[in-house]
Predict the structure.
Amino acid sequence: MSLAPRAVIVHRTTEYEELLARHGTHGQAEFFLSSRGRGIDEVAERHRRTGRALATVSAAVPSQWRRARVERADLDRFLFAPEDVVVVAGQDGLVANTAKYLAGQPVVGIDTDPGRNAGVLVRHRPDAAGPLLRAAVARGAAVDELTMVEAVADDTQRLVALNEIYLGRPDHQTSRYRLDLDGPGTPAGHPEAAGNTGPAQSAVRGGSDAGDGDVVVGGGEVQASSGVLVGTGTGATGWLRRLWRERGGSRPLPAPAEARLLWFVREAWPSPATGTSLVEGDLTAGRRLRLTVESDRLVVFGDGMESDALELTWGQSVRVGVSDTSLRLLV
């Protein structure tokens, strides 16, 4: 006998709740805000709107279904089951925060504060929750399969993200590593794509044929930079887009459902020991960006969740590419 579906409602603590947790009472929180030229009424009203939205969503769950509720801070300790239907009630970013813990479960994005959110991922109002929940378990449900990015370390640690993955130091200062590209063919951005072939691939490039600091070792390149960013089409409206525009936007941005990623090295520094020829490119299915650590500690985190990061040290490597898992977001 199969289990009934479980509706898992994901939300996050409101600003008002955070103020009460810090200051103890409404009056003390109000005094704190007033001393900084702000009022508490707007914050409290947003809290009430969120509460009403969550109540509407909860009431819409079919009576025969099981249900659970999880706060954003507890996502890394919550076990999602295959039969779950995940309802993310909040901002667009909360969908991204949740996606990394899923394995193909359908997701319903509910906007709890229309007008303040872009609504790219939280596409629906609370009163649409009932029909959407029933549609999520129906055969042939209409979903967008949004591409995700994954990082897999040589010790089997794995991390997935919906928008982007960052690799570098946690303080964003200079990271030292060796960068290379794996996969069939010669991916865009590899030195070979620019005609850099032959013995120079296994030695330090120098002389009149190379710019200062173009150091390529074993087919890869030793680099010092403020980190590497690998992003998806969904993430192309945020951090990835900023780097893309800084580089002149010469490569087309991927679409959210396209199995293609863009990667950029941030502020690569040329020196006699570090190069700058591998600084951007595309990754399609089967191709991986490989980073081998050459410093004491680097981290890998996704979608801004620095508290849930992979930690790597000297000699460890990590490969980043298109994930086999996608976010199934109801339209």
